[in-house]
Write a structure and sequence with these properties.
The chain is an alpha/beta fold. The protein is built from 31 helices and ten strands. It starts with 6 loop residues before the first helix and ends in a 5-residue tail after the last helix.
Length: 676
């Protein structure tokens, strides 16, 4: 026991051929020895435990060998080789830059370089952890490193190349050492186990190799630890117990349970893992690494990125066939977010549980990435509601066109106006009677949801004014029905029928008489940025709304979204008085830079979209002039439901500030302030 040497030292390579996992690098060094083309400075860099210092010693030994072999290896028979093997060589010096990092230490080193070697051809200085030298020491070292004596060779080794000054890097030949692969580590551990007479399970060696994380020294240290714990028989279960590692089978089971949406079983599995002493954060990171490996196993070309044993690789391939790619992407995103928030969380276990629940719900239909199950039935109802309203609006708009044309023809005849109205009323009488009864029920549901009188009849009054107004009113009725749907499923159904029937019935009523029904509130078109005159001449305005000429096409001044917003408000303030209503509605729009210099304007309804489309050329010309960029393009788009943001009133903003900011609430209450 007194002569026991750890495996990392006992089985340290003594020749280039015994170095593991650095074939290209060792071949280069051997060829340099064979040809005698030696540089004056070398830099070996790479992760810990990959053979930097070992290769430096082998290289220094081969350089001073009197009779190197044809392959560029040391002969181990000459006096220089024997002196090195017996650790009494006076030509090879090893320094630790972590403890010798001052200018004085570098000066002492330079004094040693002046003395030629007594035995051998070169003095070799191996400086380990060279990145620890101070800036002053590096600067003092520069001149000697660039032009050392002919008999001096420097070999620098470091794990952090980025900390070394560029002036030092430019004076060295740089060799980047690779991380040890799992396969190379397992092969080397098998060799050590065979020489030590230790039996093993290959899965246990694979676990040790994965735990080493690319470092051979770490792998040999863990191997010695496991061999002591297992008493000469290294098994997978014993290594798990000794290293306190979580069995990979747990991660495979977690993914299977998540795919089957078995939240309860997943929570029980997590609890059993935590009871064994494992940290929740390590479970999350381990599961993320596992899912990453599953993702890599879905394609044969990425299998090489798996640093696992062949047995584990086959398990990953089998599970990859069962897991959709979208599930893997979303699971990685959720787990990564949990990892980011884990340290700041006050209830870490709850965070881990919520994360696993969210992962387990990713395969639920119509749920997206939200935690827990969403109200799928309600989602379906909303979708059906929107589709039905769109169809109703299209039918009303299509059926109204001949009606309006008949009314115009009758008005042109003069004496036949009344007859035309009577004919129209007779034709639509039956539908109007039915629609009136249904509209009353629909209006009641809509009023209950919106807290005000229904807008079906009032909006339909506008429909009789023009063809375009009719389609827009149908869209407005659909929006009102959608709002009413939030009051409940019954309210949704009745609101749908009421809004649709109200639109049809009001259209027929408008053809018979331009006056709204008794008790119905009048809807002022000015509040919508419209006038009757504007509606009458809408077709002419659309035809005349051509692209205005950009006078500053050569200007290309860059602008930001803040500048865009400012000039947008200024443009709204400059609009003519007859467009005041439209200008006020435009102030609620926030234009964005879609792809510079393309500007996107999201509009929340079809009516406003048509109005902005008519003046699109003027909008573009105005923004191009104020922003000094003639390449601007303006894209109008109807916003989707999830893109519409509510516009708050001043009272709502005031109340929200009082609720969200306690100092502001105290100030308001203390001074007795009110919103004027």
């Amino acid at each position: 026991m007194e002569n026991y040497i750890v495996s990392a030292r006992k089985y340290r390579p003594m020749t280039f051929d015994t170095v593991v996992g650095q074939h290209a690098l060792t071949t280069t060094l051997k060829n340099a020895v064979k040809s005698g083309k030696l540089a004056h400075a070398y830099l070996f860099c790479g992760p810990r435990g990959v053979g930097k210092t070992t290769c430096a010693r082998i290289f220094a030994k081969a350089i001073n060998c009197m009779n190197p072999t044809a392959e560029g290896e040391a002969c181990n028979e000459c006096e220089s080789c024997k002196a090195f093997n017996e650790q009494r060589s006076l030509n090879i010096f090893e320094l630790d830059a972590a403890s010798n990092n001052s200018v004085e230490n570098i000066k002492a080193l330079m004094d040693q370089t002046r003395i030629p070697p007594q035995v051998g051809r070169y003095k070799v200085f191996i400086i380990d952890e060279v990145h620890m030298l101070s800036t002053q020491a590096f600067n003092a070292f520069l001149k000697t490193l660039e032009e050392p004596p002919a008999h001096v060779i420097f070999i620098l080794a470091t794990t952090e190349k980025h900390k070394i000054l560029p002036t030092i890097l430019s004076r060295c030949q740089i060799y980047d050492f690779e991380r040890m692969t799992v396969e190379n580590t397992i092969a080397h551990l098998k060799m050590v186990a065979a020489k030590e007479g230790i039996s093993y399970e290959e899965s246990a060696l694979a676990l040790i190799a994965e735990k080493a994380d690319g470092g051979m020294r770490d792998a040999l240290s863990i191997f010695d630890q496991a061999a002591s714990f297992c008493q000469g028989n290294i098994t997978y279960d014993k290594v798990l117990e000794d290293l306190n590692e979580l069995d990979a089978d747990n991660y495979f089971r977690m993914v299977d349970l998540a795919m089957e949406n078995k939240v309860s079983d997943l929570m029980l599995l997590l609890n059993s893992i935590i009871e064994k002493g494992f940290d929740g954060g390590n479970v999350v990171t381990g599961l993320a690494s596992h899912i990453r490996n599953v993702l890599m196993a879905k394609d044969e070309s990425t299998l090489k990125l798996l640093e696992t044993s062949k047995e584990q690789t086959e398990k990953f391939k089998a599970q990859a066939q069962k897991c959709p790619t979208r599930f893997l992407y979303q699971a990685l995103k959720v787990l990564n977010q949990c990892d980011v928030c884990y340290k700041q969380s006050s209830n870490k276990r709850l965070l881990v549980e919520l994360t696993l629940i969210e992962v387990a719900q990713l395969t639920q239909p119509d749920d997206g990435v939200s935690a827990g199950r969403g109200p799928k039935r309600l989602k379906i109802l909303f979708k059906r509601l929107i589709d039905s309203h769109n169809q109703a609006a299209a039918q009303v708009a299509a059926g109204e066109k001949p009606l309006v044309r008949k009314a115009k023809a009758a008005a042109a005849e003069g004496d036949g106006v009344q007859a035309s109205h009577n004919a129209t009323s007779t034709t639509l009488g039956g539908n109007a009677a039915t629609a009136t009864a249904t509209a009353a029920h629909g209006a009641a549901a809509t009023n209950a949801a919106m807290g005000g009188p229904g807008m079906g009849a009032a909006t339909a009054t506008m429909e009789a004014a023009s063809e375009t107004a009719g389609a827009t009113a149908g869209t407005a009725g659909a929006t009102a029905g959608t709002a009413g749907a939030t009051a409940g499923t019954a309210g949704v159904t009745s609101g749908t029928a009421g809004a649709t029937a109200g639109a049809v019935g009001s259209a027929s009523g408008a053809a018979a008489s331009p006056q709204p029904a008794a008790g119905m509130p009048r809807l002022k078109l000015g509040s919508l940025g419209m006038t009757f005159a504007g509606l009458k001449h809408k077709e002419e305005e659309v035809k005349q709304a051509e692209e205005e000429e950009i006078k500053n096409k050569e200007e290309a001044t860059e602008f930001t979204e803040d500048q865009l917003s400012l000039e947008w408000l200024r443009m709204c303030n400059r609009m003519p008085s007859q467009m005041t209503g439209l200008a006020q509605r435009m102030k609620n729009i926030q234009p964005t830079i879609l792809s510079y210099p393309d500007i996107e304007i999201l509009v929340d309804n079809k009516l406003l979209l048509d109005q902005l489309g008519a003046i699109k050329g003027r909008i573009r010309a105005s923004l191009a002039a104020s922003l000094h960029n003639g390449s601007i393009t303006v894209n109008l788009r109807l916003a989707k439901q999830n893109e519409i943001k509510p516009v708050l009133t001043k009272k709502q903003i005031f109340d929200k500030m009082k609720k969200d900011y306690k100092p502001f609430a105290l100030l308001v209450d203390g001074l007795g302030l009110e919103l004027g």
